[in-house]
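Notes from the 1:1 (GR / supervisor)

We went over the backlog. Supervisor wanted to see one worked example end to end before approving the batch request, so GR pasted a single chain during the call. The sequence is below; no edits were made to it. Supervisor asked that the structure be written out right there so they could see what the output format looks like.
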Amino acid sequence: MPALTRRRSDDPHRESWRVYYDGDVHIGSIGQRAGVPKTVDQWGWNVAFYPVSHRGIRENGTAQDLREARAAFAAAWARIEPLVTDDDLLQHRRERTWTAWKYRMFDCGCRMPTQTASGRSTCFCGAEIDVVGTERHVYAEHMGMR
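Structure output shown during the call:
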């Protein structure tokens, strides 16, 4: 089973961590809760990522401190991880790649093939793309893009 890794968030206002599975699939977060009274749990956690969350498979909760939040997160992941398929991980990575590619096209001033009368365009990488072949190009040439 691949290990979970945590990466500290760059939020300067509160301590929080993003949790990754297999090195690159963001499966949830653990962090200090904002705007809650001092008399309630100060930490929150959630395990949820596309596409499994769209099937209703997700958990979240609160804890008094980081140690308890980490333990609750780990217990929730132990229940969820057996339900995650290789296809779920591939779908997640493909969706992340597609979204990153679209934003990069926009940032570079490139038009999508669907935005041109001819149905053709040029990818930011210089490749000619068309409506039919765009998806194939993105996954063949830009998979793993973030």
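Supervisor's comment: DSSP finds three helices and seven strands in the chain.
Batch request approved.
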